[in-house]
Structure to design on (1264 residues):
């Protein structure tokens, strides 16, 4: 992800349309300033552009503090040509209820939004618009877009749940603000790229992996987690995802604290590579929280270096 | 779940409308024969009826072999008044592309279906209808319903992806059969009830739990899994779900092999209860596959009984 | 080990002869006051008297801070009719070099003592009597006794390494005091009895076990230790002892913190009983150090009680 | 341990005197043929000669199938200048009861031998010479020597328990053969040398280590054993030995299967070096049994090599 001044302008895909939280994430990611931002209709579409070499990176959602992992992203990264995460961005999630100017809240009989957004405003809806029916849309921004323009008059819903920016983009009026049931909701986005230069170590890094077990024996997951524990590595996310082979066959999407260049992470990867059917490396990158990883004294690079020098002397 | 001949007819809620795979699951569950089947617009709605005592049980999807865990169900069971699973049903998933009679496949410009179904037919769509856009609907059956009747003419899509039964229910014509990308796709449904009599032990049982960690320390999950491993208990499903408290705070939805009345399961539950902030028991019930759990000789009820008699003699 | 005032006087065997550190341990054990103390020529002999019902208890050494476990005791307790430890006593080990009155240190050409004592004064000997040869004796007290009386003139050695009390018992002169290489040396003795009433719980208890593995598979010991770890039980001693079956076949003699009446200890014993070929319970008794066992909040009896009540409610 | 034809003859120390089982072990070790064999009065003395460079190696006992670890050897190797094991020899242990010609078994009132030998013939003695008292000697061979020559007439015992060769060396008559209680008794001896060239890998190797824990926390030993388990390494011996610092402070003397040049062993050593206060490497050498170590497919050198190549590609 080097950025040289004499190269052509970069292009980044994102899960669109304009006005999505993903766009906000891409805007918030400093290296994207001055680059072309290209909305895509789906995570798959964004990653397909990236794999095809038509864009330099893609911003996609990976995890929501309320809804959990984003399956489309997890699955798209776990198969196909290798891609790696090079950065992550956290975006607080704030929903508004928006409608065409002049619409009264009392006249809202149906509400359009993405199903994940709907799940996050159910409490507010039950309390304030208990009679309203739900109309699914492709994204929160699409719900807002559907109300705007001439088509809006025939839309199957009278109000949209979307980001404030989507409402203003489309000239909608905000009927209610901050309607999310969880005020602290946040979504984590990742900037994905084709494998290339590794992001530098910052001391506050994450590494993302997908682990496929060799066979589905009892205690199999325990064996994988021990590879981290024995090297003092903390795990910050674990998602199981079906391998699609059969009911009950899962792989594990995992974030650990540390960088692939850290000795302890490297050795854990060696261990996993040996015991797993497949280990998919999805990148090492700076953690958005910026807090340095706490490393016990005997798992520092120095401790590994001293141990290796000692082993070398024994073998000489 | 006793069933006495002199009781009033039972009522079971399910995730509707008619024609969903969930209805097929409820129909396939023998004890529901002769009972009233009541469709609901959402998992939450079905479980609300159950918690309110208006129905005797609810059939809801919990896991799909391709799409993974069903978040709405996992989350609804993990909070609120206690409910328990008393049975599970596996339904093979077969999708058709259906349209109003007379519609040619070539004229299909948009396709309506539930987002989970759409994810499972993307391969077929890319190969056969690459230009078609996707219109989300509340369910696969709703997509079919949307095409039927007078409204169908104004529907935002010309074809629906749904179960064969939904197509025939609504008088639609099947344009293509078996369009799922994964021929072996299957969805697992659970029949949920209010806590009451435990289903009897069959020797081929499952127990479902939700575990909330006491604190989020390194190796925390390892500690929980060891409670199973040390008693020779196999885990057949592990899903992490956000507790919604903050990014990175997860609980674990887990299926293990065995019944709460099994000694080894009981002791593991004791261990979990002590080390977890909360353990939510979601029931013990016969596994749909019907294969007896393999128990090592030293974790049988007999082995526990002998050990307990010995301990008793030491303490006497 | 109840002690009623109207019973006949008790008799305790000990590893003699008079003047051994074992006698000091028996004297230091309050309940032996007023009882008959009976010296025996070996640990086996003392325990044989106990098993035969001829004495009420036997004081024997089990562990020395410098020399380690006392094999004769460990092996005698690990087989034969069951015996249990009911108390432990720690005795600081102080050695003197003693000789018949008038003998000069310069004239000492050979030194008699027990081999364990010899191992603990080798440094002093090398520095102060480098030319002296070593003559093994049955005990340190026997070395002193050998110098005394008429026989002493023909003894194969001119000085004995023994306890101060043995020197004074036999009218010997102390040529050098505190000649042990390790000033903090201490030996741990145990009062062994036939199984009967358990010593009461004090909160500062130990439990002694001998574990025989079911088969000698890789990771077998790990599996046993996990039975303690998963219940938060600390291990204060681990000795491996050959089962005598074949080279490399070992059992494990273990001390853990806690009493068999503690819930967490009871459950660990249940686990061991199930996974081991044999578990030999060698008693629960107050630790000599008197420091209360540190118990984590989730392994207290209360935590077990609450968990059990919860499990009972699930099963009801 | 290279052996070039033009070097001066080698000298090996052993635990003497002549006629000990240790001498038999040294004789059985092929590379000692033609070398000078030098008896020493103790294990410490033999290892002191080796450390001083006066001999090329020392044969000492380390483990007996009935009596367990040989503390003197374990402790002498665990401290002081580094030494390494380069070979091991197993010697079946056969004891005879021997006396001066003409002595009748019925006239034996006292029996001399080393305390470890005495422990191994107690059953025979109780059955055949129940009245005989025990006189400790420095070694079994010393017991035989004590009966021989002019001194024998004044010896404190009339018969010796020793190896057949010691009886014949000293012109004694065998009163009873094969008097060991355990017919399969065997002692394991090790040939110790100063650190130098490592013995070559044979595929049937052992590595001996002494591990000192960083602090004596609960589960500390578990943490060490996991370093082996996570790399599929089997442990064939574990002895705890006091560090002599205080009661309850132990180090662990361990044999594992494999050679320090094996990748899995090297990585385990790295792990131990990091988590232990000290790791003392006591050599890698061919196992006497000659049976190749069973290595699981994912812990072979090839598996490590492939994993390392993969990690290298990720980091490049």
């Amino acid at each position: 992800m080097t950025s040289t001044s004499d190269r052509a302008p970069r292009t980044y895909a994102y899960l669109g349309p304009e006005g999505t939280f993903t766009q906000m994430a891409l805007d918030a990611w400093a290296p994207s300033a001055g680059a072309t931002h290209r909305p895509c209709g789906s995570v798959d579409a964004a990653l397909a552009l990236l794999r095809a070499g038509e864009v330099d990176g893609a911003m996609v959602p990976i995890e929501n503090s309320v809804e959990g992992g984003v399956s489309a992203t997890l699955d798209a990264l776990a198969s196909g040509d290798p891609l790696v995460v090079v950065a992550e961005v956290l975006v607080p999630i704030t929903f508004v209820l928006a409608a065409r100017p002049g619409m009264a809240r009392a006249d809202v009989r149906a509400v359009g939004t993405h199903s994940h957004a709907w799940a996050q405003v159910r409490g507010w809806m039950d309390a304030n618009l208990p009679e309203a029916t739900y109309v699914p849309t492709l994204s929160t921004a699409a719900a807002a877009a559907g109300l705007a323009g001439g088509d809006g008059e025939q839309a199957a819903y009278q109000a949209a749940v979307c980001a404030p920016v989507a409402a203003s983009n489309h000239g909608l009026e905000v009927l209610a603000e901050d309607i999310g049931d969880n005020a602290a909701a946040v979504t984590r986005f990742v900037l994905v790229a084709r494998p290339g230069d590794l992001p530098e170590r910052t001391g506050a890094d994450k590494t993302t992996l997908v682990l496929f077990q060799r066979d589905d024996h009892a205690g199999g997951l325990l064996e994988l987690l021990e590879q981290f524990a024995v090297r003092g590595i903390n795990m910050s996310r674990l998602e199981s995802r079906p391998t699609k082979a059969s009911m009950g066959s899962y792989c594990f999407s995992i974030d650990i604290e540390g960088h692939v260049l850290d000795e302890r992470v490297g050795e854990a990867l060696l261990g996993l590579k040996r015991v797993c059917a497949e280990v998919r490396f999805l990148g090492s990158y700076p953690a958005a929280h910026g807090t340095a990883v706490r490393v016990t004294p005997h798992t520092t690079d120095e401790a590994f270096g001293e141990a290796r020098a000692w082993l070398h002397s024994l073998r000489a």
